Amino acid sequence: MAGPPGSGSAGAPVALSSRAPHVPADRLVAEMVPPPRFQGARFDTYIPDTEQPSQAEAVQVLGTFAAGIGGSADAGAAKRRWFAKKPAAPKGPRGVYLDGGYGVGKTHLLASLWHATDAPPERKAFGTFVELTNLVGALGFQQTVRTLGEHRLLCIDEFELDDPGDTVLVSSLLSRLVEAGVALAATSNTLPGKLGEGRFAAADFLREIQGLSAHFRPLRIDGDDYRHRGLPQAPAPYDDETVTRTAHRTPGASLDDFPSLLDHLSQVHPSRYGAMCDGIRAVCLTDVQAVPDQSTALRLVVLADRLYDREVPVLTSGKAFDELFSDEMLRGGYRKKYFRAISRLTALARDAGPLVTP
Questions:
Q1: Cα dist. 235→255, 288, 303, 353, 354 in Å?
Q2: Whole-number Å distance between alpha carbons of 107 and 221
Q3: Which of 143, 148, 217, 281 has the highest CB neighbour number within 10 Å of its CB?
Q4: Nearest-angstrom CA–CA distance, 189 and 161
Q5: Residue 40 CB: number of other CB atoms within 10 A?
Q6: Tell me: the pLDDT tens digits for 196-232?
């Protein structure tokens, strides 16, 4: 759901650290659609890497999966059609799990699946794992089951395997939704300590969701981070004066001291970070420093995701984005979240370049 126009105007940037929005439960449900960055995502706009045949195969498989979900106004008819798609195997998987490293386009494909599924928008849901757990917290478990049980499709981006408690909660929720005939699609993060070679492990995902394993078909997507394919390195940070001047002449810009913003994030629930960015057209940050601890780092990851979803350029002074997280963090169990955040913030830094004039 789009927010109001930016509170700031040229010459009067707002401060994200002054915002602590209230987000009602009905907004959480209404916003379970692909984020603005992926509103135009379609299978035919996904550009497969010619050296990675699994990417083109994923497009084909997901297209078939979308066609099988159907969109009749009668839920029972939809379920019967889904099972009838392949008469020889009526009990096949009702879900797909996109297994691949960060930057291979999993979110683009997940959003394309949402758009390709023939059902009204209010009968399809798309959100991150964190947004789904926030919904359960706002509505309660039973009401969430009733609300999402009326849907044809639920897409979950960045399934959080590193949180055992929430994983059990969402696994229970998905079990109830499968019983209601809801088709599922998911991507996920890795488990703590499963460092691998920069990819998400399908075996970890399927093991963690236990009884749901039979309902998911793992779909491997190989490749490198598309955000860096043939693109230049991220621009170096600017000086404080340039960032401040740009914020004051950019309509809808925000301007914050980075340490102050990090402190503010600790006082706002992550479910509100999206609303905190309503109407913001550019984020300007001075004195960017390495984050001091893991809790702070994880909150910054959520904010980076919300900014990336909304295609908000980020202009900074201080340290470069590849210096945000310590070596210890980048070797730990949340390393893939941190690399994703670096990748996304780097893309947003490139987007901010045109805001700066000599």
A1: 19, 14, 20, 8, 12
A2: 12
A3: 148
A4: 6
A5: 12
A6: 334 445 566 666 666 666 677 888 888 765 555 554 4
pLDDT in tens, 119-130: 999 999 999 888
Cα angle 90, 93, 98; round to 5: 150
What is the length of the chain? 358
Read off the pTM. Answer: 0.73
Residue 30: other Cβ atoms inside 10 A:
12
Structure tokens at 14: 């707002």
Once rounded to an integer, what is the mean pLDDT over residues 142-164?
87
Residue 337, CA distances (Å) to 101, 188, 190, 213, 275 in order: 11, 10, 9, 24, 21
Return d(Cα 151, Cα 280) in angstroms, integer.
31
**Cβ–Cβ under 8 Å, residues 207 and 164:** no
Using a 10 angstrom Cβ sphere, with 0-12 exposed, 13-18 middle and 19 or more buried, the burial of residue 357 is exposed
Which residues, other chains included, contact 139 with Cβ-Cβ below 8 Å and sequence gap of 6+? 25, 28, 29, 147
Q: Residue 106: is it exposed, middle or buried by C-beta count within 10 angstroms (0-12/13-18/19+)? A: buried
pLDDT at 107 over 50: yes
Query: How far, in Å, CA of 320 to CA of 312, rounded?
Result: 18
Residue 49 to residues 85, 224, 265: CA-CA distances in angstroms? Answer: 30, 9, 37
pLDDT exceeds 80 at position 80: no
Bridge partners (DSSP) listed for residue 153: 124, 183
Instruction: Count CA atoms within 13 Å of residue 340 on its CB side.
Output: 32
Q: Is 312 exposed, middle or buried (0-12, 13-18, 19+ CB in 10 A)?
A: buried
* 245 contacts: CB under 8 Å, gap ≥ 6: none
